[in-house]
């Protein structure tokens, strides 16, 4: 009689049942809790900053009398006011709450749009790129759980900011501020911002690298801003071009004037469609890969690829290319508007003497004022690029690649210097693209108000100011690597002080000193002060010197 040996029964292997909506979403709740815990500090500062901006804006505008509000209304009817603010609903009876809606929606959508893009890419594509997502999915986590958790937490953060901001508006607003209008403003902004976050989710399925997804998403954000600005200048209260932009969907809700909710449905519809598209792409691509195949490299590296500078260039070149292309096209299109600005402003002066009192009656002065404002916003875009590139070294350190490079006979200062050198060159290139693209746009349509030499004189004072943003971020990374993101505070501070500092009574002059753009002369109007230019140059040298000193003294990795 033969016996068949059987192996002793081992412990039962637990089977993972399907989640309610399919096994691909298993573990979504745990991923949501993990993201909220991981980003709790970042979420707090984003919420605090946006809500504080609402609070400050409402409180400051509440101190204006009727004459001052009429002056602001006149500014909102100018081309630069329309481009930066919006279609200008309610300017005929301008009140503080209407000013908040007209002048603030664009900037809140930009700020929260950037936050949404960074959030989505950080918790999807960047996690796959760093291989952390692979470790997470080795656990009891479904394929789509990380992406759904990222979308859910982004929705939660935008909703949280919308609720707190609406509460602030209601709490300090006047008798004409209603709960419905307040939520109409903040919910419209939140939904428009979510559109750009979901755009980033789609690009995260197409590209292999997080920086590529961020770059493409930022390009869409910039294109949407330009479409809204150009469309609003074509036709009073917006044209069909305006309605192609999520910015317009928030503004066309007309809070505090004639609130309508249906434009918000456009944001909702686009969000749903993009989510479906992103889910479709995510289900059909390889984990860790993208739908767009990477070009195969050469079998042998050329001599030009040797060295830390070549490495830094390869890491930053595409960000520079796409940002230069996107912003260059946007500012070129801005330059093509110059011949129409004088006629448009002349008509406004004839119909509204208050506009003439603010801007004068010289057509060349109209063009100068418009160019000055456009250049200011252009340089703020360059400053944002400098801050992002100033953090590229941190990304290399976080991913562990910096340790591998520094394990070779390579000095720390050489590696970090290469990163800053390429970032600095990119900042200079972006500044030149911004200025000369406007000149090229004007030349293309026959505008001869200012020559190439005039634009060059405007360009060079902006260079040390833009490099200050890179240097400040580099200092934070070198000395306090976990606080590198605070580099954005310098940009936000400069924007708030530059745009709204005049609203604060008894604001000391010294409050402007920390703003690099404060020391730059007014474009096409003032000549550079030698002492100011020397001071900016010294500030750049000191900031970069402190960055090198701090980086040599600390441990790696420290992030």
TrEMBL record:
Record-annotated membrane-spanning stretches: 43-64, 105-124, 145-171, 183-206, 213-231, 259-282, 318-338, 366-388, 418-439, 459-479, 486-504, 533-551
UniProt protein name: ABC-2 type transport system permease protein
Keywords: Membrane, Transmembrane, Transmembrane helix
Source species, domain of life: Bacteria
Keyword hit for Manganese: no
Annotated signal peptide: none
Tagged with keyword Membrane: yes
């Amino acid at each position: 009689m033969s016996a068949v040996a059987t192996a002793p029964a081992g412990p039962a292997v637990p089977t993972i049942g399907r989640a309610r909506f399919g096994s691909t979403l298993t573990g979504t709740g745990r991923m949501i809790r993990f993201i909220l815990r991981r980003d709790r500090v970042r979420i707090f500062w984003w919420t605090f900053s946006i809500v504080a901006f609402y609070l400050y804006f409402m409180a400051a505008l509440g101190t204006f009398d009727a004459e001052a509000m009429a002056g602001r209304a006149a500014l909102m009817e100018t081309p630069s006011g329309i481009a930066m603010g919006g279609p200008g609903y309610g300017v005929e009876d301008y009140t503080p709450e209407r000013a908040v809606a007209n002048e603030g929606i664009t900037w809140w959508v930009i700020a929260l749009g950037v936050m949404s893009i960074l959030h989505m890419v950080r918790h999807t594509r960047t996690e796959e790129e760093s291989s952390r997502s692979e470790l997470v999915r080795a656990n009891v986590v479904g394929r789509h759980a990380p992406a759904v958790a990222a979308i859910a937490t982004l929705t939660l953060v935008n909703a949280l900011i919308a609720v707190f901001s609406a509460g602030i508006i209601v709490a300090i607003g006047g008798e004409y501020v209603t709960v419905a209008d307040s939520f109409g403003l903040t919910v419209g902004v939140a939904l428009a911002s979510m559109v750009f976050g979901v755009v980033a989710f789609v690009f995260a399925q197409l590209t292999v690298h997080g920086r590529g997804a961020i770059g493409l998403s930022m390009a869409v954000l910039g294109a949407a801003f330009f479409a809204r600005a150009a469309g609003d200048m074509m036709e009073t209260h917006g044209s069909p071009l305006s309605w192609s932009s999520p910015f317009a969907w928030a503004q066309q809700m007309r809070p505090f004037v004639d609130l309508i909710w249906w434009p918000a449905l456009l944001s909702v519809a686009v969000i749903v469609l993009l989510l479906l598209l992103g889910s479709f792409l995510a289900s059909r691509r390889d984990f860790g890969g993208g739908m767009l195949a990477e070009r195969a490299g050469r079998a042998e590296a050329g001599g030009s690829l040797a060295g830390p500078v070549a490495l830094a260039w390869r890491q930053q070149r595409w960000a520079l290319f796409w940002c230069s292309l996107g912003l260059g096209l946007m500012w070129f299109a801005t330059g093509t508007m110059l011949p129409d600005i004088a006629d448009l402003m002349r008509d406004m002066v004839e119909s509204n003497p208050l506009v003439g009192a603010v801007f004068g009656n010289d057509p060349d002065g109209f063009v100068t004022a418009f160019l000055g404002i456009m250049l200011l916003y252009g340089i703020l875009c360059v400053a944002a690029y400098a801050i992002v590139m100033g953090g590229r070294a941190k990304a290399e350190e976080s991913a562990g690649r910096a340790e591998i490079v520094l394990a070779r006979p390579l000095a720390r200062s050489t590696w970090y210097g290469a990163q800053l050198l390429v970032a600095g060159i990119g900042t200079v290139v972006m500044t030149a693209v911004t200025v000369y693209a406007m000149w090229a746009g004007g030349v293309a349509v026959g505008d001869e108000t200012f020559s190439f030499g005039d634009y060059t004189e405007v360009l060079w004072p902006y260079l040390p100011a833009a490099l200050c943003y890179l240097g400040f971020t580099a200092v934070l990374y070198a000395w306090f690597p976990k606080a590198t993101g605070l580099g954005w505070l310098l940009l936000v501070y400069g924007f708030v002080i530059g745009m709204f500092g005049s609203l604060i009574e008894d604001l000391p002059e010294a409050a402007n000193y920390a703003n690099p753009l404060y020391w730059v002369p007014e474009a096409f109007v003032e000549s550079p002060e030698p002492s100011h230019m020397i001071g900016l140059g010294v500030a750049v040298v000191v900031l970069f010197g402190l960055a090198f000193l701090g980086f040599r003294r600390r441990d790696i990795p420290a992030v």
